[in-house]
Amino acid sequence: MEVLYEDNHLIIVNKRVGEIVQGDKTGDEPLSETIKRYLKEKYAKPGNVFCGVTHRLDRPVSGVVVFAKTDKALGRMNRLFAEHGVKKMYWAIVCGKPEKEEGRLEHYLVRNEKLNKSFAYDREKPGGKRAVLTYRLLTAGDRYSLLEINLETGRHHQIRSQLSAIGLPIKGDLKYGAKRSNPDGGISLHARSVEFVHPVSHELVRVVAPVPEDNLWRLLTEGV
C-alpha cells in the first residue's frame, strides 16, 4: 500500500488497479480493511481501528483515495464532498485523439443496473442525470492520447461513458468501446490529484498520485 499523506485525521493512498475501496460481494479484502491493519500495526492500537470511506474509485481505476481516521473527520469530509469542496483531477489514456485540444462535454447519463453501465445521450432522457466534465489534451502519440479531466458533476462511470460517447474510449475499457483489454485487467484511468481545505486544520491539502508502472503511462506523461 502506497501512503501519500497521513496526519491524525486523514490518510490518503494511491489505489492500484484491481483493488476495491470498500467491501463488496466478491469478498476480496478492501483498502479500508488494509488500512485498518496498517494503522493497528503502525501505532500498536488495541481493539478496533476506525477507517472511514469518504469516496470511491471503480475497481479497474487507479489513483488517489482519501480515508478518514476519525468519525469527526469522516463527517466533515463527507460534507466537503457533498458541497463540492474537494477538487479531483483525473488523467486518462484514450484511444485516438480529440478533435479539439480542450473542451467541455455535457450529456445525460442513463444507468443500467443490470449491465452496470451508463449510457450517454445528448438530450434529456427519462431517468437521465446531467453529466458535465472538461478535458484538456496533454500529449498525443500515434494511437493514444493523454487527457486531463475535471468533473463538474459526479455520476456513475461518468468519465468512461462520456469519453466513449465522443469516440475516445479509455484504453483497456472493453465495456465502453476499447478494442482490447489491458494486461492487468484494469483501464487507463487514473485519479491524479485531490485538493481541499483540511476539515480540521483548515490548511490547503493537495496530493498527487504517481501513475502506474507501465511503459505507455511513462511515455505519455514524460515531461508533463
Low-confidence stretches: none
Helical segment tally? 4
| Mean pLDDT figure | 95
- Structural class from helices and strands? alpha+beta
Order of helices and strands: EEHEEHEEEEEHEEH
| Backbone shape | globular
Largest sheet: 11 strands, mixed
Distance between the termini: 25 Å
Please report the total strand number as a whole number: 11
Helix content: 10-25%
Radius of gyration: 18 Å
GO molecular function: catalytic activity, acting on RNA; pseudouridine synthase activity; RNA binding
Family: Belongs to the pseudouridine synthase RluA family.
Organism: Candidatus Aphodosoma intestinipullorum
GO biological process, one term: pseudouridine synthesis
Structure characterization notes:
The structure is a single chain. Helix content is 17%, strand content 35%. It has helices at 31-42, 71-82, 158-165, 215-221; strands at 2-6, 10-15, 52-53, 62-68, 87-95, 102-112, 117-121, 129-140, 144-151, 189-197, 204-208. Strands 1, 2, 3, 4, 5, 6, 7, 8, 9, 10 and 11 form an 11-stranded mixed beta sheet that branches. Strand 10 and strand 11 (204-208) form a beta hairpin. The protein is globular, with a radius of gyration of 18 Å. The two termini are 25 Å apart.
Provide a brief overview of the structure.
The chain is of the alpha+beta class and 224 residues long. It has helices at 31-42, 71-82, 158-165, 215-221, and strands spanning 2-6, 10-15, 52-53, 62-68, 87-95, 102-112, 117-121, 129-140, 144-151, 189-197, 204-208.
